[in-house]
């Protein structure tokens, strides 16, 4: 899966689903580790998108003409 093509909402949904699977305790160890690794990537991607949105909002606050 290429996180870079996901919307924030899709990435967050996938992250939430991974967490639910891991919390269920039904995944074998190897799958839990893979899910954790994927979750770390999705979390970082979501944080990046949020930071970009925050910077855009701050820019608009300072100079609304740039919109």
Quick rundown:
The protein has helices at 8-24, 29-62. With 67 residues, the protein is mainly α.
Describe the structure.
The chain is mainly α and 67 residues long. 76% of the residues lie in helices and 0% in strands. It has helices at residues 8-24, 29-62. Helix 1 (8-24) packs antiparallel against helix 2. The longest helix has 34 residues, at 29-62. It starts with 7 loop residues before the first helix and ends in a 5-residue tail after the last helix.
Order of helices and strands: HH
Q: Give the helix tally.
A: 2
Return Rg in Å.
Answer: 16 Å
The rounded distance between the terminal residues' Cα atoms is 32 Å
What does the average pLDDT come to?
91
User: Which descriptor suits the 3D outline?
Assistant: rod-shaped
Structural class: mainly alpha
Runs in which pLDDT lies below 50 for 5 or more consecutive residues are none
Hey, roughly how much beta strand do the residues contain? under 5%
Portion of residues within helices:
over 70%
Give the total of beta strands: 0
Largest sheet: none
List the helices and strands and how they pair.
Blueprint (H helix, E strand, L loop, with lengths): L7 H17 L4 H34 L5
Helix pairs in contact: 1-2
Which descriptors apply to this entry?
67 residues; rod-shaped; 76% helix; 0% strand; mainly alpha
């Amino acid at each position: 899966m290429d996180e870079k093509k996901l919307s924030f909402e899709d990435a967050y949904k996938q992250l939430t689903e991974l967490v639910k699977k891991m919390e269920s305790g039904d995944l074998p160890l190897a799958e839990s580790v893979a899910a954790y690794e994927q979750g770390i990537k999705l979390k970082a991607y979501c944080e990046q998108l949020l930071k970009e949105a925050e910077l855009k909002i701050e820019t608009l606050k300072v100079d609304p003409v740039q919109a």
